[in-house]
Amino acid sequence: VQLQASGGGLVQAGGSLRLSCAASGRTFGTYGAGWFRQAPGKEREFVGAIRSSGGITYAESVKGRFTISRDNAKNTVYLQMNRLNSEDTAVYFCAAGRVILSSVRAPKSYDYWGQGTQVTVSS
CA of 36: how far to CAs of 28, 59, 69, in Å? Predict the structure, then answer.
């Protein structure tokens, strides 16, 4: 599976962005997909994930502001980000793996990673 993340950019605080993660491979629907982010000088942080079953998990810091969805027919996962603030500034990565509920937050649970897309929120 190869992943290509896109949709990042510069946005003002309070604004919105939608990230996309396009995957190759006909079996993508059988994988869970996660979004992580990494700010300068910080560790990679879990943002949210959608399992192959459709179950979704969010980090507390984004719950109520971010929405994950997937379109298996298009082999694409989306991250809709609303009410962005400066703490959301980071490089965002998508990942895919055969994750279960107890493992979705751990980067090591994912076998495939996209290249990352920069999100910058100006205050």
Answer: 18, 10, 15
Q: How far is CA 60 from CA 21, 27, 31, 46, 105, in A?
A: 22, 30, 23, 10, 12
Q: Which residue has the tokens 């719950």?
A: 63
| pLDDT of 26 strictly over 80 | no
- Report how far residue 84's alpha carbon sits from residue 108's, in angstroms, rounded to the nearest whole number: 27
- Cα-based distances in Å from 24 to 31, 90, 122: 12, 25, 33
What's the whole-number mean pLDDT along residues 81-99? 97
Taking the C-alpha atoms of residue 65 and residue 58, their distance in angstroms, rounded to an integer, is 10
Q: How many CA atoms lie within 13 A of 111 on its CB side?
A: 8
Residue range 22-42: average pLDDT?
92
Query: What does the block give as tokens for 15?
Result: 């604004």
Helix (H, G, I), strand (E, B) or coil at 33: strand
The predicted pLDDT at position 25 comes to 78
The pLDDT of residue 84 is 98
